[in-house]
Amino acid sequence: CNINGKTLRAEMLAKNSFPRKKTIDALKKILRIKSPLSGGILQKYCEKNSFERYSLETGDHLIPFVIKRGTVPGKFRLLLHPEGKAQLTEAEIASYSADGSTLAICDLFGEGETAQQNIINGIRYQLLRQLLWLGRSLPGEWVKDILAMVNILKKRFGACEIDVTGIREAGTCAIFAGALSSADKFTVTAVDSPASLLFRRDSIPSFRG
After folding, report:
1. Distance between CA 157 and CA 151 in Å, rounded?
2. Beta carbons of 171 and 178 less than 8 angstroms apart
3. Which of these, 150, 78, 62, lies nearest to 110 by C-alpha position?
């Protein structure tokens, strides 16, 4: 893996440009994305602590999310934490909504309300293995969730301007989603996310997984 990684890195750094379609197709292949999530049924639940509560049924799984209304019409921020929305503190939520944005905070696939119990080797070990057996990947599932959420916010919530703010691994997946999105345009803010996973031991972030 280390030898192949160094070779791949050298090849990438030697390039001056990347063909758009070929690069997007390569990214989809790496993420194991065959097709985006299609449609979705929006379910609304009772409000709690000034948060509107929803879920998006994709036909494949549920995406639970909450909405905290802002003061600027049409301005939205999709806020993503790699371990689920419950990990965000009140101070963080207040900070990310300080610009008047309406916050949409969701649990990405396998996290938060959709997490499964792990009894060995880290918080995502079993889920990662199960997805790989099925020809899927966790980053790919997160990218599809992000694109589905951006789409529903524009269609059903009146979002005109969306910033997808992802913390750590979620920020990396938000960047991937931005690259793959064709119809729905949005900006991305990656918070404490790796700029690059170089093939050196000291360059790999100490994320749990």
Report:
1. 10
2. no
3. 62
Joined together, the tokens standing for residue 104 give 């949409």
Cα-trace Rg, the chain: 18
Contact indicator for 164, 171 with CB cutoff of 8 Å: no
Q: How far apart are the C-alpha atoms of 167 and 192, rounded to whole Å?
A: 6
Cα distance between residue 179 and residue 193, in whole Å: 16
SS3 labels along the chain: CHHHHHHHHHHHHCCCCCCHHHHHHHHHHHHCCCCCCCCCEEEEEEEECCEEEEEEECCCCEEEEEEECCCCCCEEEEEECCCCHHHCCHHHHHHHCCCCCEEEEECCCCCHHHCCCCCCCCCCHHHHHHHHHCCCCHHHHHHHHHHHHHHHHHHHCCCCEEEEEEECHHHHHHHHHHHHCCCCCCEEEEECCCCCCCCCHHHCCCCCC
Per-residue model confidence as pLDDT tens digits over 122-132: 556 666 677 77
Give the pLDDT confidence of 14-50 residue by residue, as tens digits.
888 888 889 899 999 989 998 776 668 999 999 999 9
What's the CA gap between 186 and 89, in Å, rounded?
Answer: 25
